[in-house]
Amino acid sequence: MKLGRVRNIVVVAGAGISTGSGIPDFRTPGTGLYANLAKYDIPYPEAIFNIDYFSDNPHPFFSLAKELYPGHHRPNYVHYFIRMLHQKGLLLRMYTQNIDGLEKLCGIPDDKLVEAHGSFATAACHLCYTPYPAEEAKQAIMKGNVPICTFCAGAVKPNVVFFGEDLPEKYFQHAEDFPKADLLMIMGTSLKIEPFASLVNTVKSTVPRLLLNRDPVGPFERRPLRRADYMELGDLSDSVRKLAEILGWHTEIQDLMNSHENGLRSYTDPSNSSGENSDSSETDSMH
Protein backbone atom coordinates (compact mmCIF):
# COMPACT_ATOMS: atom_id res chain seq x y z
CA MET A 1 0.00 0.00 0.00
CA LYS A 2 2.81 2.40 0.91
CA LEU A 3 4.82 1.54 -2.18
CA GLY A 4 1.90 2.14 -4.51
CA ARG A 5 1.55 -1.44 -5.71
CA VAL A 6 -1.95 -1.79 -4.26
CA ARG A 7 -4.83 -0.06 -6.03
CA ASN A 8 -7.98 -2.14 -5.44
CA ILE A 9 -8.51 -3.05 -1.80
CA VAL A 10 -11.61 -4.99 -0.79
CA VAL A 11 -12.49 -4.82 2.91
CA VAL A 12 -14.63 -7.52 4.53
CA ALA A 13 -15.85 -6.48 7.99
CA GLY A 14 -18.02 -7.74 10.82
CA ALA A 15 -19.27 -6.70 14.25
CA GLY A 16 -15.75 -6.51 15.69
CA ILE A 17 -15.11 -3.19 13.95
CA SER A 18 -17.91 -1.60 15.99
CA THR A 19 -17.05 -2.86 19.48
CA GLY A 20 -14.80 0.20 19.84
CA SER A 21 -17.97 2.29 19.46
CA GLY A 22 -19.59 0.54 22.43
CA ILE A 23 -21.64 -1.92 20.37
CA PRO A 24 -21.33 -5.58 21.45
CA ASP A 25 -20.59 -8.20 18.83
CA PHE A 26 -22.72 -11.33 18.47
CA ARG A 27 -20.66 -14.22 19.74
CA THR A 28 -18.23 -13.12 22.48
CA PRO A 29 -19.05 -15.30 25.54
CA GLY A 30 -20.65 -13.23 28.30
CA THR A 31 -20.76 -9.87 26.50
CA GLY A 32 -21.95 -10.71 22.96
CA LEU A 33 -25.52 -10.10 21.85
CA TYR A 34 -26.42 -13.79 21.73
CA ALA A 35 -25.30 -14.26 25.35
CA ASN A 36 -27.69 -11.55 26.56
CA LEU A 37 -31.05 -12.40 25.01
CA ALA A 38 -32.66 -14.28 27.91
CA LYS A 39 -34.99 -11.34 28.67
CA TYR A 40 -36.63 -11.76 25.24
CA ASP A 41 -37.92 -15.27 26.04
CA ILE A 42 -36.91 -16.85 22.72
CA PRO A 43 -36.29 -20.58 22.11
CA TYR A 44 -32.65 -20.09 21.00
CA PRO A 45 -30.54 -16.93 20.44
CA GLU A 46 -30.57 -16.88 16.64
CA ALA A 47 -34.40 -17.06 16.64
CA ILE A 48 -34.52 -13.31 17.11
CA PHE A 49 -33.17 -12.97 13.55
CA ASN A 50 -35.11 -15.89 12.06
CA ILE A 51 -37.78 -14.86 9.55
CA ASP A 52 -40.11 -17.78 10.36
CA TYR A 53 -39.95 -17.01 14.08
CA PHE A 54 -40.50 -13.30 13.36
CA SER A 55 -43.56 -14.18 11.29
CA ASP A 56 -45.06 -15.98 14.28
CA ASN A 57 -43.89 -13.53 16.93
CA PRO A 58 -42.34 -10.20 15.90
CA HIS A 59 -42.31 -8.74 19.43
CA PRO A 60 -38.86 -9.99 20.59
CA PHE A 61 -37.13 -8.52 17.53
CA PHE A 62 -38.94 -5.20 17.88
CA SER A 63 -37.98 -5.00 21.57
CA LEU A 64 -34.35 -5.53 20.58
CA ALA A 65 -34.67 -3.20 17.57
CA LYS A 66 -35.11 -0.22 19.89
CA GLU A 67 -31.48 -0.75 20.87
CA LEU A 68 -30.31 -1.65 17.37
CA TYR A 69 -31.49 1.47 15.56
CA PRO A 70 -28.60 3.70 14.48
CA GLY A 71 -28.15 6.94 16.38
CA HIS A 72 -26.73 5.91 19.76
CA HIS A 73 -23.15 5.42 18.60
CA ARG A 74 -20.32 7.13 16.77
CA PRO A 75 -17.85 5.62 14.30
CA ASN A 76 -14.45 4.77 15.75
CA TYR A 77 -10.85 4.81 14.51
CA VAL A 78 -11.32 1.57 12.52
CA HIS A 79 -14.18 3.07 10.49
CA TYR A 80 -12.11 6.16 9.73
CA PHE A 81 -9.14 4.02 8.67
CA ILE A 82 -11.42 2.45 6.04
CA ARG A 83 -12.66 5.88 4.99
CA MET A 84 -9.00 6.91 4.60
CA LEU A 85 -8.47 3.96 2.24
CA HIS A 86 -11.25 5.50 0.14
CA GLN A 87 -9.77 9.00 0.32
CA LYS A 88 -6.42 7.65 -0.83
CA GLY A 89 -8.15 6.11 -3.85
CA LEU A 90 -7.38 2.57 -2.68
CA LEU A 91 -10.80 1.22 -1.66
CA LEU A 92 -12.53 -0.79 -4.37
CA ARG A 93 -15.38 -1.81 -2.06
CA MET A 94 -16.25 -2.48 1.57
CA TYR A 95 -18.47 -5.47 2.34
CA THR A 96 -19.93 -5.18 5.83
CA GLN A 97 -22.10 -7.55 7.84
CA ASN A 98 -23.03 -4.71 10.18
CA ILE A 99 -26.41 -3.04 10.42
CA ASP A 100 -25.31 -0.19 12.71
CA GLY A 101 -24.86 2.34 9.89
CA LEU A 102 -21.48 3.52 11.20
CA GLU A 103 -19.76 3.04 7.83
CA LYS A 104 -22.08 5.61 6.22
CA LEU A 105 -21.90 7.86 9.26
CA CYS A 106 -18.12 8.12 9.03
CA GLY A 107 -18.40 9.17 5.39
CA ILE A 108 -17.80 6.03 3.33
CA PRO A 109 -19.91 6.71 0.21
CA ASP A 110 -22.78 4.45 -0.88
CA ASP A 111 -21.06 3.38 -4.08
CA LYS A 112 -18.10 2.03 -2.08
CA LEU A 113 -20.26 0.18 0.45
CA VAL A 114 -22.15 -3.12 0.33
CA GLU A 115 -24.30 -3.66 3.42
CA ALA A 116 -24.56 -7.41 2.96
CA HIS A 117 -27.02 -7.89 5.81
CA GLY A 118 -29.19 -4.89 4.97
CA SER A 119 -29.87 -1.81 7.07
CA PHE A 120 -32.48 0.18 8.96
CA ALA A 121 -32.57 2.85 6.24
CA THR A 122 -35.62 1.29 4.54
CA ALA A 123 -38.51 -0.95 5.62
CA ALA A 124 -41.04 -3.28 4.00
CA CYS A 125 -43.70 -5.85 4.77
CA HIS A 126 -42.04 -9.19 5.51
CA LEU A 127 -44.86 -11.05 3.68
CA CYS A 128 -45.68 -9.07 0.52
CA TYR A 129 -42.53 -6.86 0.47
CA THR A 130 -44.56 -3.67 -0.05
CA PRO A 131 -42.27 -0.76 0.94
CA TYR A 132 -43.21 1.13 4.10
CA PRO A 133 -41.91 4.55 5.24
CA ALA A 134 -38.83 3.79 7.32
CA GLU A 135 -39.36 6.70 9.71
CA GLU A 136 -42.96 5.62 10.42
CA ALA A 137 -41.76 2.07 11.10
CA LYS A 138 -39.13 3.40 13.49
CA GLN A 139 -41.65 5.57 15.35
CA ALA A 140 -44.02 2.61 15.80
CA ILE A 141 -41.22 0.34 17.02
CA MET A 142 -39.92 2.95 19.47
CA LYS A 143 -43.43 3.21 20.95
CA GLY A 144 -43.55 -0.58 21.40
CA ASN A 145 -45.96 -1.13 18.51
CA VAL A 146 -45.71 -3.48 15.52
CA PRO A 147 -45.88 -1.52 12.23
CA ILE A 148 -48.53 -3.09 10.00
CA CYS A 149 -48.56 -3.28 6.20
CA THR A 150 -51.44 -1.24 4.75
CA PHE A 151 -51.68 -3.68 1.83
CA CYS A 152 -51.81 -7.15 3.44
CA ALA A 153 -51.74 -6.43 7.21
CA GLY A 154 -48.47 -8.33 7.65
CA ALA A 155 -45.81 -7.12 10.09
CA VAL A 156 -43.44 -4.55 8.61
CA LYS A 157 -39.77 -4.81 9.47
CA PRO A 158 -36.64 -2.80 8.68
CA ASN A 159 -34.76 -4.23 5.68
CA VAL A 160 -32.25 -6.03 7.86
CA VAL A 161 -31.52 -9.50 6.46
CA PHE A 162 -32.79 -12.33 8.66
CA PHE A 163 -31.86 -16.00 8.53
CA GLY A 164 -34.05 -17.43 5.78
CA GLU A 165 -34.12 -14.24 3.69
CA ASP A 166 -32.32 -13.34 0.48
CA LEU A 167 -29.31 -11.05 0.59
CA PRO A 168 -29.66 -7.62 -1.04
CA GLU A 169 -29.04 -7.43 -4.77
CA LYS A 170 -25.98 -5.24 -4.27
CA TYR A 171 -24.25 -8.10 -2.44
CA PHE A 172 -23.86 -9.99 -5.72
CA GLN A 173 -21.50 -7.29 -6.97
CA HIS A 174 -18.87 -9.46 -5.26
CA ALA A 175 -18.66 -11.59 -8.42
CA GLU A 176 -17.01 -8.60 -10.14
CA ASP A 177 -15.20 -7.02 -7.20
CA PHE A 178 -13.28 -9.90 -5.66
CA PRO A 179 -11.51 -11.00 -8.86
CA LYS A 180 -10.30 -7.37 -9.25
CA ALA A 181 -8.92 -7.11 -5.71
CA ASP A 182 -5.17 -6.79 -5.24
CA LEU A 183 -5.47 -6.85 -1.43
CA LEU A 184 -8.21 -8.30 0.79
CA MET A 185 -8.50 -6.93 4.32
CA ILE A 186 -10.65 -8.95 6.75
CA MET A 187 -11.58 -7.19 9.99
CA GLY A 188 -13.57 -8.03 13.09
CA THR A 189 -15.56 -11.01 11.85
CA SER A 190 -16.05 -14.61 12.95
CA LEU A 191 -16.64 -15.69 9.32
CA LYS A 192 -19.41 -17.95 10.61
CA ILE A 193 -22.37 -16.76 8.51
CA GLU A 194 -22.70 -18.00 4.94
CA PRO A 195 -22.62 -17.05 2.15
CA PHE A 196 -20.72 -13.97 3.41
CA ALA A 197 -17.98 -16.08 5.03
CA SER A 198 -16.98 -17.74 1.76
CA LEU A 199 -16.29 -14.42 0.02
CA VAL A 200 -12.75 -14.42 1.40
CA ASN A 201 -11.96 -17.48 -0.73
CA THR A 202 -12.95 -15.82 -4.01
CA VAL A 203 -9.90 -13.59 -4.52
CA LYS A 204 -7.08 -14.91 -6.70
CA SER A 205 -4.73 -17.24 -4.85
CA THR A 206 -1.82 -14.84 -5.39
CA VAL A 207 -3.67 -11.89 -3.80
CA PRO A 208 -2.55 -11.02 -0.25
CA ARG A 209 -5.19 -11.51 2.45
CA LEU A 210 -4.66 -9.59 5.70
CA LEU A 211 -6.66 -10.67 8.75
CA LEU A 212 -6.98 -8.09 11.54
CA ASN A 213 -8.99 -9.91 14.20
CA ARG A 214 -9.09 -11.10 17.78
CA ASP A 215 -8.75 -14.74 16.72
CA PRO A 216 -7.85 -16.73 13.59
CA VAL A 217 -11.02 -17.44 11.56
CA GLY A 218 -12.06 -19.19 8.36
CA PRO A 219 -9.08 -20.09 6.15
CA PHE A 220 -6.71 -18.56 8.74
CA GLU A 221 -7.50 -21.40 11.16
CA ARG A 222 -5.78 -23.86 8.83
CA ARG A 223 -2.05 -24.50 8.67
CA PRO A 224 -0.01 -23.83 6.73
CA LEU A 225 -1.38 -20.45 5.70
CA ARG A 226 -1.48 -19.54 2.04
CA ARG A 227 1.78 -17.88 1.03
CA ALA A 228 0.11 -14.47 0.67
CA ASP A 229 -1.89 -14.67 3.93
CA TYR A 230 -1.01 -12.48 6.93
CA MET A 231 -2.55 -12.22 10.39
CA GLU A 232 -2.40 -9.55 13.09
CA LEU A 233 -4.29 -10.93 16.08
CA GLY A 234 -5.46 -9.16 19.23
CA ASP A 235 -7.35 -5.93 19.84
CA LEU A 236 -8.58 -4.66 16.46
CA SER A 237 -8.25 -0.96 17.27
CA ASP A 238 -4.62 -1.48 18.32
CA SER A 239 -3.86 -3.49 15.17
CA VAL A 240 -5.42 -0.87 12.88
CA ARG A 241 -3.58 1.96 14.65
CA LYS A 242 -0.32 0.07 14.25
CA LEU A 243 -1.00 -0.38 10.52
CA ALA A 244 -1.91 3.31 10.15
CA GLU A 245 1.34 4.30 11.83
CA ILE A 246 3.35 2.04 9.50
CA LEU A 247 1.63 3.74 6.56
CA GLY A 248 2.20 7.21 8.01
CA TRP A 249 -1.55 7.88 8.13
CA HIS A 250 -2.22 8.01 11.88
CA THR A 251 -2.26 11.81 12.30
CA GLU A 252 -4.28 12.23 9.10
CA ILE A 253 -6.90 9.74 10.33
CA GLN A 254 -7.04 11.40 13.74
CA ASP A 255 -7.55 14.83 12.13
CA LEU A 256 -10.23 13.44 9.78
CA MET A 257 -11.99 11.76 12.69
CA ASN A 258 -11.98 14.91 14.83
CA SER A 259 -13.18 17.25 12.08
CA HIS A 260 -15.89 14.86 10.86
CA GLU A 261 -17.15 14.10 14.37
CA ASN A 262 -17.28 17.83 15.20
CA GLY A 263 -19.28 18.34 12.01
CA LEU A 264 -21.67 15.53 12.96
CA ARG A 265 -22.18 17.00 16.42
CA SER A 266 -22.88 20.45 14.99
CA TYR A 267 -25.36 18.93 12.55
CA THR A 268 -27.18 16.89 15.20
CA ASP A 269 -27.27 19.80 17.66
CA PRO A 270 -28.15 22.90 15.61
CA SER A 271 -29.02 24.80 18.80
CA ASN A 272 -25.36 24.73 19.75
CA SER A 273 -23.97 27.73 17.90
CA SER A 274 -20.38 27.01 18.93
CA GLY A 275 -20.50 23.74 16.98
CA GLU A 276 -19.59 21.80 20.10
CA ASN A 277 -21.69 19.15 21.70
CA SER A 278 -20.97 17.78 25.14
CA ASP A 279 -22.95 14.61 24.47
CA SER A 280 -20.12 12.31 23.52
CA SER A 281 -21.17 9.49 25.83
CA GLU A 282 -21.91 6.06 24.42
CA THR A 283 -25.01 4.11 25.36
CA ASP A 284 -24.85 0.35 25.23
CA SER A 285 -26.57 -1.10 22.21
CA MET A 286 -25.66 -3.53 19.52
CA HIS A 287 -24.86 -4.28 15.90
From TrEMBL:
GO terms for molecular function: histone deacetylase activity, NAD-dependent; NAD+ binding; zinc ion binding. The active site is at H117. Residues 1-250 form the Deacetylase sirtuin-type domain. The keyword Zinc applies. CDD domains: SIRT1. Zn(2+) binds at C125, C128, C149, C152. Its EC number is 2.3.1.286. Gene3D superfamilies: SIR2/SIRT2 'Small Domain (3.30.1600.10), TPP-binding domain (3.40.50.1220). Residues 271-280 have a biased composition (Low complexity). It catalyses: N(6)-acetyl-L-lysyl-[protein] + NAD(+) + H2O = 2''-O-acetyl-ADP-D-ribose + nicotinamide + L-lysyl-[protein]. One of its GO terms (cellular component) is nucleus. SUPFAM superfamilies: DHS-like NAD/FAD-binding domain. NAD(+) binds at residues 15-19, 25-27, 97-100, 189-190, 213-215. Keywords: Metal-binding, NAD, Transferase, Zinc. Binds 1 zinc ion per subunit. Pfam families: SIR2. Residues 261-287 are annotated as: Disordered. Its cofactor is Zn(2+). Belongs to the sirtuin family. Class I subfamily. NAD-dependent protein deacetylase. This is NAD-dependent protein deacetylase. It comes from Cyprinus carpio (Common carp).
